[in-house]
Amino acid sequence: MKPSPAVPVERERTGDAWTLVFTRELKHPRAKVWAALTDPDHLDAWSPFRPDRDLGRTGPAVLTMEDGDTKANIVRAEPPHTLEYQWDEDLLRWNLEELEGGGTRLTLRHTMKDPGFLPKAAAGWHICLDVADRLLAGDPVPVIRGEEAKKSGWQELADAYAAKLEGPEPEEDA
Predict the structure, then answer these.
(1) What is the pTM assigned to this prediction?
(2) Residue 132 and residue 41: Cα distance in Å, rounded?
(3) Per the domain annotation, does 87 fall within a domain?
(4) Tell me, what CATH number does 42's domain have?
(5) 88: phi > 0 → left, psi -120 to 50 → alpha, else beta; which?
């Protein structure tokens, strides 16, 4: 599957952490997108992990990836608009905004320590969300993870996002 073009992204700095702000507009209803973000079967079909439970409620979870399990803690689950979880050392917050006409603006705020990982994360989430978009449209493609992502345009996307994210270091948010 050839990925869609890179989308606008931003980076923010708070203390020693960096946040990738990644926004996609999807043609699908917010409740359907929420299910894709929380239901284990949906997540297994598009995300980099399979959770051991529904992520739509707070508390610990185990996320299984190709290279093993990682712990997560869902700290905020407010259907159908906000999902936030600690994933290993990273913090991910998904916000879903209903658009006129029934679509959804999905904004992912992925906070991490290493600013060099921002374009790599953007490329990975981009490919994942392309797969999710196809799944939600009823035209699923196989999940793309690990080495398969590298064969599916990941490096080109990472390079494009690195160019979008370079420039003067943003001032620290208060």
Answers:
(1) 0.93
(2) 12
(3) yes
(4) 3.30.530.20
(5) left
Distance of CA 97 to the CA centre of its chain: 15
Domain that holds residue 149: 9-165
Domain membership of residue 1 (yes or no) is: no
Answer yes or no: is 172 within a domain: no
Residue 2 lies in a domain: no
Pairing relationship of beta strands 90-98 and 9-14 according to DSSP bridges: unpaired
Query: Do 162 and 36 touch, CB atoms closer than 8 A?
Result: no
CA–CA separation, 110 vs 14, rounded Å? 12
Q: How far apart are CA 101 and CA 165, in angstroms?
A: 31
Q: Mind listing the pLDDT tens digit for each residue in 79-94?
A: 999 999 999 999 999 9
